[in-house]
Write a structure and sequence with these properties.
Layout (H helix, E strand, L loop, with lengths): L3 H6 L1 H11 L5 H6 L4 H12 L3 H61 L1 H24 L2
Length: 139
């Protein structure tokens, strides 16, 4: 016989399976028996006429399968998490490599054309200073 904890822990699964097998149950009827396996079996037995043993076997099977489904969901979530982690690591490495290449390229450009590089840096500094000054002045 299933325990109260098993029934409570997998109530949605149990309720859905009972309604799927015996479609004549409303949510209210099942809510009355929530938490008590004996009450649930009694309600089902009264409404369907099935034997107590058959109902108990069905409920035990639902609880067992519910645990299996939960384990499968956890395994799937873990696999997706690992895949996402690996993908994020690969993306980080690619971006890091591109930044290093850009830094090296900038260094080479400064070595080849130092005067132009200084002029561009000076111009960028002037523009940034003017923009910051205008923003601060407008406040």
């Amino acid at each position: 016989m299933i325990t109260r904890q098993e029934l409570e822990g997998q109530w949605n699964q149990v309720k859905g399976q009972v309604q799927e097998r015996w479609g004549e149950f409303s949510d209210n009827e099942l809510r009355e028996a929530r938490g008590s396996a004996d009450q649930l079996v009694g309600v089902i037995q009264q409404k369907t006429g099935e034997s107590r043993r058959a109902i108990e076997d069905f409920l035990e099977q639902v609880v067992e399968n519910g645990g299996t489904i939960a384990q499968q969901a956890a395994d799937t979530a873990r696999a997706y998490s690992e895949h996402a982690s690996e993908t994020a690591q690969e993306q980080y490495e690619q971006v890091s490599q591109k930044v290093r290449e850009g830094y090296e390229h900038a260094g080479q450009m400064v070595q080849r054309k130092p005067i132009e590089s200084v002029a561009v840096a000076f111009g960028a500094g002037i523009v940034a200073g003017v923009v910051v000054g205008l923003v601060l002045k407008s406040r």
